[in-house]
Amino acid sequence: MKKKITQAMVLFVATLLLCGCQQSPDKNSVVSKNDGTFDISVIQSATRPQASAEVDPNTKEPSVAEEIPTKKSTYKDNFFSTDGTVAFTINLETFIPDVPMPVVEVVPHYLTGADAKRVAEVLFEGEKFYEAQPTFSTVYSKPEIQEKLMRWSQYTSDEAIERLFGSPQINATNVVQDFIERYTQLMETAPEMAIATPCLWQFQESWRYNYTAEQVKTENISVSSDDEIRAYTSSEGIPYRFTASTRNKSDFKYNMIFALPDYGISPWGLDEMILQARLCRDKKPTDEQIACAKSKAEEWLNNLNLGEWTIDTCNVLHCTNGDARDYKISVQAVPTFNGAAAIRRPQLNNLKSKEQYASNYYLTDSELIFSPDGTLLSFQLFSPVDVKRIVNNDPAVLDMDKLMENAKNYFQLTDAYFYGIGGSMDESGVDINCQVDIDNLEYGLSRVKVPDTDDSYYYVPSIALSGDIQYTISDTGEVCFRNENTALLLLNAVDGSIIPFENE
Q1: How many CB atoms lie within 10 A of CB 381?
Q2: Which residues lie below 8 Å from residue 176, measured CB to CB, with a gap of 6+?
Q3: Could you tell me the pTM of the whole model?
């Protein structure tokens, strides 16, 4: 019976999280006094000793050859939500920057062909770039098809597939065999030479990289009018696809750059898995390899000429599937203004929201993923921006005690439904407890909207709180759901208002 109850609860939690549905509490317990925009008229300049604000104008970093000064902050507290459904623990001991953090107004940087070409040449120095053929009408040459068939032919047995993927893949061998037969037939009409048109570095409507004009007309395909440059290159024997995309419409805007290995369509994602196994299988990166990947990412980002960046995260990704253990190095970076870095926060999941505070431009962010030996496996860059003006180099901000008081008030006005599920299961009658442990605080810049515009944003000083959420069965203490290192709250440090994480 206990097992059945636990299984039912896990299913219930999963359903809620996937559907985004929550039962409403009796009262509106989550209150924000603002609409997500920011009134700069409240800004006053800070009064601080000149020494702590000294900046070398050539480097935009503190002029002394020391680490950025910090101030230790410790906060410990235990309390309940107002309705008693959530128990909170605050256990913070952190060092926050004790330097001026500006308020900066930025606008989207719309990518140009020159931008795309420059970024591609930074990532793949010395390589040649070619225009991509339409995805659904790509013509492969005889040598290209022969190369594919040689790779795929090694994986026509269940045993070979299982070794590659780390676990059995139902029906995979049938799919591989079908591809081999189809591409063998294509050999009969394939050209002797590969189609290779040098990249023009000119944006065109993105649909042209997927379909021919004839396909769109005869098949009545709905197409997008967003602009794109898609190019192919090869580095150290690995084919890469490079894509730069831009959109500037009234509903939403974006600028994005991606680069990743691309062998074209393959059965069961076989080509990508072969490459991953070759570069990453059972090769846990050393500290030296991690440092080299971080250094390479930092050098590339500095040379993109798409704003200033700070690497805030560098860690090892463990990709485990059955007996297969693959390792990758992830390097993430955030935008930086006047030496102050933005706080990492969840990427926006909806650019079409009608909410007043909703952003219509993805958060500025970048991630590079490398194999242990430093081979690029993925590059992505979202939403470069241009600085329109420095509103205030050193604004007055609320002290940490006041910000933490605002945070506590916010948490007290939430309830168990806000974090995932409620205090009992209606059908089973099982009572559950909700515990939120707040154990991480970051101080940096966060983006908010400029009122009455969809084209400008402010980066303002802010604090971000994160921690763990856990639900347990009241009678047994058994954990039925746990979510670790979750973003919980973002506060504007100038006026103490809540900065929404999402556009919903």
Answers
A1: 24
A2: 152, 155, 156, 161, 267, 268, 270
A3: 0.87
